[in-house]
Write the structure tokens for this entry.
Amino acid sequence: MKTPKRIGILEVARLAGVSATTVSRVLNGQVDSRISVETQERVRATANSVGYVVNRLATSLRTHRTGVFGAIVNSLSGHYQPHLTSRLQAAAQRRGVELLVAQAKAEAGEVAGQLRLFQEDFFDGVIMVSDLPGQQALCDHLDRMGKAHVTLGAGLTGPLPAVLTDDRYGMNLLFDHLTGLGHRRISFVYRISRNALRDRLAIFEETIAASQGSIAGDVISFERGESDRKAFLGILAAPERPTALICGSDGLAIEVVAFLRDSGVRIPDDISVVGYDNVPDTAYWAPPLTTVAQPTDQLCEASLDLLVELSNLPLEARVAKRPIRFVPPELVTRASSSSPSLRPFSLA
């Protein structure tokens, strides 16, 4: 049986009407602003139509680059992180970049063990999603090993280089929305075990302080213990109760809404509740949740862009460069927020 002829990069370039260098850059994830999106799409479509496959081994031997990246995710459970991870993989696929994802182990030492895999020559760099155990030490270790890395969504105090949602802008969107509805008593709901909420908590407290008394705001812990839940209801039953709650995340907001409904509180008739993230569930919750939409696709695109950019730099330039890039979110207004009700309500 005759072996089919292997399609080469020159044939792909001829059919796509571009140079072999352009084909190589596109299919190895090394594109920049000089190669238009239309050209990238045409090259990938041409390569797919003729069955061209990048020879990663040959590329690695020639350039010491493979176009393969790794990602370590804090968790693949919950509401937002699985959604973020799936969009990160989709963004990599659009670029023709291979992205291999691992879920972080529980201990810093175990995560360091996982990173040893990503330190192999087969990987060009690593994206670390959210905050991992001992993350700064891990980034320092990657620097010593000469590997490019980017941290996605670990907050203002997380390691650099990083790509973040502009949470200050996002929190301002929520405050403007609620005060525009007439709310002047607004509380922030958080969970102490969630480090990812610390920036939003700090921004909330700064905003309340800057209002010089025009907005009354407290921070309320919403833990899973029975005593914490009773204390939460006690705050809502007080005469000077908040008329609106800003929850630090959509996952937390969904728990709060369910708990309040079970306790006989009507949303938004008795109290408005808003979240942060815009995970897919929130549009179908009862009531649909007003929230800040994290620009997930833009975050993923920016993270990959930065990682590719850094991996193309010499080691000294990469270590010296510690950029932080912000992506602005958007407000999504739904039925869980309305004008404040000042009448008392009964708790079940």
About this structure: The chain has three domains: 9-54, 66-152+295-328, 167-293. The first helix runs from residue 9 to 16. DSSP finds 13 helices and twelve strands in the chain. The two ends are 77 Å apart (CA to CA).
